[in-house]
Amino acid sequence: MSGQTITKSLVDSLEKQPAEYTVWDAKLPGFGVRVRPTGAKSFIIVYRAGTGRTAPVRRLTLAAVGKIAPEAARTQAKILLGTVANGADPAAEKRANRPKRDRLTFEELAQLYLDQYAKVRKSSWKNDEGYLKKPRAKWNRRIAAEITDDDVAELLEDIGATAPVGANRTQSILHTLFSWAKEPGRKHIPTNPVADMRRRYQETPRERVLTDEEIRALWWGLDDADLPASRPVALALKFILATMVRPGQSAGLLVPELVGFTGEDPQYHIPKNRVKKRREVIVPLNALAVASVREAIVREDRGAVFSSWSFRSDSDDVERGDESPSDRSPRQLAPLTRDALSAALNGRPAKGKRSVRKGIREHLGMAHFTPHDLRRTAATIARRGGAKREDVKALLDHLEGDVTATYDKYDMLAEKRLVATILEAELRKIIGVKPNFCRPEIVFDRDNVVPIEEQKIAVAS
Predict the structure, then answer these.
(1) Fold of 212-431
(2) Backbone torsions φ then ψ of 34, nearest 5 degrees
(3) Crossing angle for the helix pair 413-431 and 231-243, to the nearest 10 degrees
(4) Which of 89, 107, 109, 87 is nearest to 98 (CA)?
(5) What does the pLDDT look like over 9-68, one tens digit per residue?
(6) Backbone torsion region of residue 5, taken as left when φ is above 0, otherwise alpha when ψ lies between -120 and 50, otherwise beta
């Protein structure tokens, strides 16, 4: 595609297609925007390295869209294309400046992968970063090209001893990392040591759905003054159950993402960076969801709806979901994380000088469940209440994945709003009226102290 001036509005309007395509700038030949099938966009230049028709054609990526403005990208492209006219080859120079394979450590390779691939293409890049912590700690200064399949197998066996699912996820991330690292034009490593490795641990599909009794106990238990978690954490968990959003989308909710919040049609506009396949999703909010958000916002005027205190410890930065203790200095208020919600449910064992912290489940006497199980529970409740399967699927933001879905952009907002209403009605039936946990009132009759319940029995007799 050509003949258009590359501006911010043009770049924002470009939609992903089944095949990669490039839009070329009308003002600066060789400068364009490449759009991949995943939806990732980047500014590029194309030029001939040399003179004549036989000179090789080079393509150089300037930066991902979002990291640099179109005008700044055009300026950079103009400078580079100017050097090409004087005989330079920017693409070759970039390759020459890459770390040498024989000295590139795994730590350096992992950071390159996160910066150049995961953060650019994946809304869930934080997951990749988390699962790479143990490989980076174990292989740190090892030369990346020298890591073998036996090294990977040993690492996965160590992880799988206590976290078999974590071992599988780590294996998947390592496979993607090494595949990316050996691609032509990059070739940081000669082979992918995970290429022929089968998944080591069998996983049981998650099917946990909370019962009505558990839902009621959790909903009102989250209001317990002695709950071993902060109020923002409790409200964020309620928000998942009332909306079906993913835990990370609940934890990361920002005030500017609430559209029409004080009107009759409140909505949560989830930004592309927190949605699979990088596209904006609109979630209608029912009254229960609005109540959780309103309480969280009233607590303090801030950008994050459900916030946590972030601290600096002696050894590391620790993000927590509980309130600020007096013996530590908070660095800043920040949105909760998905891990903070899980940690609040799980609690933590004593370790070193760190004391044991009871989890929400243990405090409420409930069987194991995860924040994501609340999403599955909400979907089940809505279906039980009469919501159509395809409408629930839309609110869950489950993609079809076929060619038609690529072109069908109908947002199903009306259908999703109906599901949210049904979900609220069903939840209200389940949770009922808030239990009265107060002790029987004591009345004084001269010198005798008589509970009201006993008075009622006496009157009745």
Answers:
(1) hpI Integrase; Chain A (1.10.443)
(2) -95, 135
(3) 120
(4) 109
(5) 999 999 999 888 999 998 899 999 999 888 889 999 999 988 878 888 989 999 889 888
(6) beta
